[in-house]
Amino acid sequence: MSARYSARFALMAGLFISVFLLSMSVGRYPVPVSSVLKALLPMTGEGELASQVETVLYRVRFPRVLLGALVGAGLSCSGTVYQSIFQNPLVSPEFLGASSGAALGAAFAILNGFGYRTISLCAFITGLVAVGLVVLVNTRSRINRILGYLLAGIMVGSLCSAGISYLKLIADPNNSLPAITYWLMGSLASARREDLVFAAPLILSGLLFLFLMRWRINILSVGEEEARSMGVDVRLVRGGAILGATFVTAACVSVSGVIGWIGLVVPHFARFIVGADCRRSIPASILLGGALLPATDDFSRMLSTSEVPIGILTAFVGAPFLLFLILHERREL
Amino acid sequence: MNEPSLCVKGLAVRYGRRRVLSDVSFEFGGGSLVSILGRNGSGKSTLFRSILGLIPYEGEIRASGRATRNMNASERARIFAYIPQSHENASAHTAFEMVLMGTSSGLGFWSTPGRREVVRAMGALEEAGIPHLSERRYDRLSGGEKQLVLIARALAQDASILVMDEPCSSLDYGHQIRVMGCARRLAGQGYLVMLSTHNPEHALSFADQAMLLMDGKVGKPGAPSEVLSVAALERMYGVPLGPVSMGGMGAVRTTRIAGCSFAGS
């Protein structure tokens, strides 16, 4: 990697670490960064932390911030992969129905009064099933593959949305309806250590898989026929990339709810900084997404007395940012 | 590079019920530039796509003595390199990154290009005469520059048969001469270069052999001056060609030397 890109990656890594430490530090109960460092790296400081500080850092902030970083990194990486393999800058992780499928599963689980862990599991499984349905429909269709994915994704997404609307219609307006509505807006407010234990291995293994495939994904980004003529097994690479990106998206959505825009905007930002080559844009989107979501979450918990769902804030931040990119770099899109 | 050859026997392609190519047979050896001419929709791109194994076909295709039907994508890529028409929906990769992709057929599934592949890509850019474009974004290049980048990518692929689908379409005259000159030079180095064109003057000025494609069938290949007779062109394109047109071709023939030397041959 050239010195130019090495410097940019160093800056992005610095941003990621800074946002992580800052997110651990700020909140209704502020904790100095030195105490955060002492908690994370005990050898860096002397003396013991107050038990109250330990509780805030270990039990509340650490799971929330780390989960935010993982979800941001996961959604951004999935977005980059989807945009590359479908050669479409407007594609996001919701494209193939993973998010809407997961939302349907979660709404069903909430309506039936399932436990917290079961809600996540239901969301994860239905997210995978929704994308599996899209892939199945597409293998049977004879139209252009990319168009087929797009249409099947819209169709499955609409079905899931209809299902969610129905579940909301029959939900108890005092109990399960607000829970479903809040879940659909996306939030890290209820993040706990169990969520990390459930989602972190799934997200990290998916990210590793996509990172290892980055060169093949990169070649696929110039078009199916050209990639085949350069020796790429298009079916295998596209199938693997869809599987990996869907796996990561479903795992993210299952613990955070539906958080839009991150998976659409961050890939553009990553390409803006390091170019279109997936060898760089995939790790860059992981670092940037991993920084952006915890930063947005900081605002969501500090903006008002009650927490603002993070999905609303990502839309407020993401939409103007995408407009900025459109105006600044027309040919990038 | 092994001496390339391409032998096609009884090739037929259908799109649904429509037969696009039927009973296509020909044989070409290395070190020659073959120009294929035909009207729009005559099956030129279909012929190339079947040779490249991108679409199903009937018949037999042998490259350098080996049947290609059961080859996987990686094996094919070591024999054939595809140079499509430069595209408008191009990605934002740099020219160097585009060329580097050509080195992929020799890499394992999980591997990324290393120093050896980088050197090969730089060499291909040099060979195509465009090292100065390496850091420029592909989608910001002119049509002719894009075409030269795609040729460099094919060279990086290290294949012996280069298939160019209308490489000069939508290029200005200067870039047409550059691209055709580059193709001519590669044929001189031993590659088998097959290209489709709408312009008989390109075949007359640069090609070793020409072949006409009409209604899904190919004519007998031969020297361009023999194959591209006025009568054959009139029959194929359905328009009368007068002495003015022939004069024009003669004029282009005189640019042959200038064009080749300009491209560095």
Features:
heterodimer, A: 333 residues, ABC transporter involved in vitamin B12 uptake, BtuC, 14 helices, globular, B: 265 residues, alpha/beta, Rossmann fold, disordered C terminus
Question: In words, what does this structure look like?
Answer:
The complex is a heterodimer of chains A (333) and B (265). Chain A is an all-alpha fold and 333 residues long. Helix content of chain A is 76%, strand content 0%. Chain A has helices at residues 3-25, 33-40, 51-85, 98-111, 116-140, 145-170, 176-185, 193-212, 214-220, 224-229, 234-256, 262-274, 278-302, 310-328. The radius of gyration of chain A is 20 Å and the shape is globular. The model of chain A has no long low-confidence stretch (mean pLDDT 90). Chain B has a domain at 1-29 and 39-72 and 198-265: Rossmann fold. Chain B has helices at residues 44-51, 73-77, 95-101, 115-127, 143-156, 173-188, 200-206, 224-227, 230-237, 243-262; strands at 5-15, 18-29, 32-38, 58-63, 66-67, 80-83, 161-164, 192-197, 209-214, 217-218. In chain B, the strands form two sheets. Chain B has a six-stranded mixed sheet, with helices on both faces. In chain B, strand 4 (58-63) and strand 5 form a beta hairpin. At the A-B interface, helix 9 and helix 10 of A face helix 2, strand 6 and helix 3 of B.
